[in-house]
Amino acid sequence: MRRVEYISVSDRKKFHRHAIDAGSIDEVSLRDAVRDEGALFFIAEGANGITDPLERAAFLLHRIAVRHPFYEGNKRTALLAAEDALTQFGYCIKESPELNQKVRDIASEVLEEGEIVPWLKTVVIPIH
After folding, report:
1. Is residue 1 in a domain?
2. Dihedral, CA of residue 99, residue 107, residue 35 and residue 63, to nearest 10
3. Mean per-residue pLDDT of the chain
Protein backbone atom coordinates (compact mmCIF):
# COMPACT_ATOMS: atom_id res chain seq x y z
CA MET A 1 0.00 0.00 0.00
CA ARG A 2 1.30 3.45 -0.87
CA ARG A 3 1.93 6.01 1.82
CA VAL A 4 -0.52 8.88 1.52
CA GLU A 5 1.22 12.23 1.46
CA TYR A 6 0.17 14.88 3.94
CA ILE A 7 -1.73 17.74 2.32
CA SER A 8 -0.99 21.20 3.66
CA VAL A 9 -2.58 24.58 3.09
CA SER A 10 0.62 25.71 1.38
CA ASP A 11 0.25 22.79 -1.06
CA ARG A 12 -3.25 23.98 -2.00
CA LYS A 13 -1.90 27.51 -2.44
CA LYS A 14 0.77 26.20 -4.83
CA PHE A 15 -1.91 24.51 -6.93
CA HIS A 16 -3.86 27.74 -6.93
CA ARG A 17 -0.84 29.69 -8.19
CA HIS A 18 -0.42 27.17 -11.02
CA ALA A 19 -4.11 27.42 -11.89
CA ILE A 20 -4.02 31.22 -11.96
CA ASP A 21 -0.78 31.31 -13.94
CA ALA A 22 -2.43 29.08 -16.58
CA GLY A 23 -5.45 31.40 -16.78
CA SER A 24 -5.89 34.88 -18.16
CA ILE A 25 -3.42 37.70 -17.61
CA ASP A 26 -6.17 39.62 -15.76
CA GLU A 27 -6.04 37.08 -12.91
CA VAL A 28 -2.33 37.36 -12.10
CA SER A 29 -2.93 39.86 -9.30
CA LEU A 30 -5.09 37.21 -7.59
CA ARG A 31 -2.56 34.37 -7.71
CA ASP A 32 -1.85 34.55 -3.96
CA ALA A 33 -5.26 35.85 -2.85
CA VAL A 34 -7.00 33.50 -0.42
CA ARG A 35 -10.63 34.38 0.26
CA ASP A 36 -11.18 31.98 3.17
CA GLU A 37 -8.10 30.65 4.96
CA GLY A 38 -10.28 28.70 7.39
CA ALA A 39 -12.05 26.83 4.59
CA LEU A 40 -8.68 26.06 3.00
CA PHE A 41 -7.39 24.65 6.30
CA PHE A 42 -10.58 22.59 6.75
CA ILE A 43 -10.25 21.18 3.22
CA ALA A 44 -6.58 20.23 3.68
CA GLU A 45 -7.20 18.62 7.07
CA GLY A 46 -10.30 16.79 5.85
CA ALA A 47 -8.39 15.35 2.90
CA ASN A 48 -5.63 14.12 5.19
CA GLY A 49 -8.09 11.77 6.86
CA ILE A 50 -8.96 10.03 3.58
CA THR A 51 -6.74 7.23 2.29
CA ASP A 52 -8.79 5.96 -0.66
CA PRO A 53 -7.51 7.74 -3.80
CA LEU A 54 -10.92 8.23 -5.43
CA GLU A 55 -12.55 9.39 -2.20
CA ARG A 56 -9.68 11.79 -1.54
CA ALA A 57 -9.77 13.20 -5.08
CA ALA A 58 -13.57 13.56 -4.90
CA PHE A 59 -13.34 15.35 -1.55
CA LEU A 60 -10.75 17.84 -2.82
CA LEU A 61 -12.58 18.38 -6.10
CA HIS A 62 -15.90 19.02 -4.40
CA ARG A 63 -14.73 21.07 -1.42
CA ILE A 64 -12.46 23.43 -3.33
CA ALA A 65 -14.93 23.92 -6.20
CA VAL A 66 -17.94 24.46 -3.91
CA ARG A 67 -16.45 26.30 -0.92
CA HIS A 68 -14.40 28.74 -3.04
CA PRO A 69 -11.46 29.33 -0.69
CA PHE A 70 -9.79 31.51 -3.37
CA TYR A 71 -11.04 34.65 -5.09
CA GLU A 72 -10.43 33.20 -8.54
CA GLY A 73 -9.47 29.87 -10.09
CA ASN A 74 -11.30 27.55 -7.67
CA LYS A 75 -12.50 25.07 -10.29
CA ARG A 76 -9.06 24.84 -11.89
CA THR A 77 -7.42 24.49 -8.48
CA ALA A 78 -9.94 21.80 -7.50
CA LEU A 79 -9.11 19.77 -10.60
CA LEU A 80 -5.35 20.14 -10.06
CA ALA A 81 -5.71 19.06 -6.41
CA ALA A 82 -7.78 16.02 -7.41
CA GLU A 83 -5.20 15.10 -10.06
CA ASP A 84 -2.42 15.36 -7.48
CA ALA A 85 -4.31 13.11 -5.06
CA LEU A 86 -4.72 10.51 -7.81
CA THR A 87 -1.12 10.81 -9.02
CA GLN A 88 0.12 9.79 -5.57
CA PHE A 89 -1.50 6.41 -6.25
CA GLY A 90 -0.43 6.09 -9.90
CA TYR A 91 -3.66 7.34 -11.50
CA CYS A 92 -4.82 10.35 -13.49
CA ILE A 93 -8.03 11.71 -14.95
CA LYS A 94 -8.19 11.08 -18.68
CA GLU A 95 -8.76 14.09 -20.89
CA SER A 96 -12.25 14.34 -22.29
CA PRO A 97 -14.37 17.02 -23.94
CA GLU A 98 -16.83 17.01 -21.02
CA LEU A 99 -14.22 17.32 -18.23
CA ASN A 100 -14.56 21.09 -17.84
CA GLN A 101 -18.35 20.82 -17.80
CA LYS A 102 -18.22 18.13 -15.11
CA VAL A 103 -16.08 20.38 -12.91
CA ARG A 104 -18.58 23.21 -13.47
CA ASP A 105 -21.39 20.80 -12.56
CA ILE A 106 -19.58 19.93 -9.34
CA ALA A 107 -19.03 23.61 -8.49
CA SER A 108 -22.70 24.42 -9.06
CA GLU A 109 -23.74 21.22 -7.26
CA VAL A 110 -25.57 19.86 -10.29
CA LEU A 111 -23.31 16.85 -9.75
CA GLU A 112 -23.69 16.18 -6.04
CA GLU A 113 -20.88 15.11 -3.73
CA GLY A 114 -22.04 11.48 -3.61
CA GLU A 115 -21.98 11.27 -7.41
CA ILE A 116 -18.34 12.29 -7.82
CA VAL A 117 -16.66 8.97 -6.96
CA PRO A 118 -18.89 6.99 -9.38
CA TRP A 119 -18.08 9.54 -12.10
CA LEU A 120 -14.35 9.39 -11.27
CA LYS A 121 -14.46 5.60 -11.66
CA THR A 122 -15.39 6.17 -15.32
CA VAL A 123 -12.59 8.68 -16.07
CA VAL A 124 -9.64 7.68 -13.89
CA ILE A 125 -6.92 5.65 -15.61
CA PRO A 126 -3.54 4.27 -14.51
CA ILE A 127 -0.47 6.34 -15.33
CA HIS A 128 1.75 4.38 -17.70
Report:
1. no
2. -90
3. 83
Summarize the confidence of residues 54-78 as an average pLDDT. Answer: 91
Considering its fold, how many domains does the chain have in total? 1
Burial class of residue 65, CB neighbours in 10 A (0-12, 13-18, 19+):
buried
Pairing relationship of beta strands 91-93 and 124-126 according to DSSP bridges: antiparallel
- Examine residue 107 and state whether it is found in any structural domain, yes or no: yes
Overall pTM > 0.70: yes
In a domain, 88, yes or no: yes
Q: What CA–CA distance (Å, rounded) separates 63 from 122? A: 20
pLDDT at 41 over 90: no
The answer to whether residues 73 and 19 touch, using CB atoms and an 8 Å cutoff, is: yes
106: Cα within 13 Å, side-chain hemisphere: 32
